[in-house]
Amino acid sequence: MAALAGCGHLSRTFRSALCPFRYGASKLQLHAGIGYPAICANEPLLRRTRALWGSGVVGRHFSSDCGDDLSVRYLEGEDSGIVVLGINRPKAKNAISKNLVKMMAEAVDAVKVNKSVRTVILCSLVPGIFCAGADLKERAKMHPSEVGPFVSKARALMNELGNLPMPTIAAIDGAALGGGLEMALACDIRTAAFTAKMGLVETKLAIIPGAGGTQRLPRTIGVASAKELIFSGRTVDGTEAKSLGLVSHAVEQNEAGDAAFRKALALAREFIPQGPIAMRMAKLAINRGIEVDLATGLAIEEACYAQVIPTKDRIEGLTAFKEKRPPRYKGE
């Protein structure tokens, strides 16, 4: 902590990041319900939604009309604590529009302050597509003066997604290009189908990645490999992405087209039994520590460890170990 006190900016960051998480009013109107979001008359998409959510899953979601670009599901039962954000723009290949940025920002804001959320999965409800990047048709209609502010909002969304306090997983079952890959890079972990295509292709359009790609990709796969992919605009499949370290897991695609999502869900199920405060502090320590020198990183780890010492969950973990039973953590 003493080391942290000497760094004004770092100290301010930690005072903000370490403050107790509180429930807050959400701008999103969430509704309790059973079954699947209404997907209009799109039967293939309906089948995929059923595959993703599973039959009879009880949860909360947006009331979905044809115009909804994002589906939000709070899973229950044994999967309580998992939130699934499903991108749903089938006609636009899940391209990033003004409305999608707005809806995702609101969803991220709601999740951020919800202490019951332990893991977030970002996926697609559209077969064969994760996110095709920016909505170029919408972009073409923008005045040049509008482009910069829109890209800034998209970049801010990626930052907010990356700064969520709980673990986040991107499930890439289809193409993740440009801003779509930048969105996935903002998540902690990525799973992908062997057949998925990923790449930062912006240089082919005489622009550069503008929502974090030039920073997060080299931090993920190394500087030289990131430069090669960005300079060439080349795409890679799930197998090559795994060898590069771009994704943590690559899996054979299944008939339903949701193999990466199922792997992400399996990982989330491994995460949710752990102490939620400890998970958040571990993520904070890693994310902040990796950006600084080792001595400062160790001070950050010490500061984060100090946050778990007075928790009821820590006592519960010790008690459960002594009594040889599974711990029941409450995030307290």
Automatic annotation (TrEMBL):
Main location as per UniProt: mitochondrion
GO terms, biological process: fatty acid beta-oxidation
One Pfam match: ECH_1
Annotated GO CC locations: mitochondrion
Keywords attached to this entry: Acetylation, Lyase, Mitochondrion, Transit peptide
Subcellular location: Mitochondrion
Family listed: Belongs to the enoyl-CoA hydratase/isomerase family.
Protein name: Methylglutaconyl-CoA hydratase, mitochondrial-like
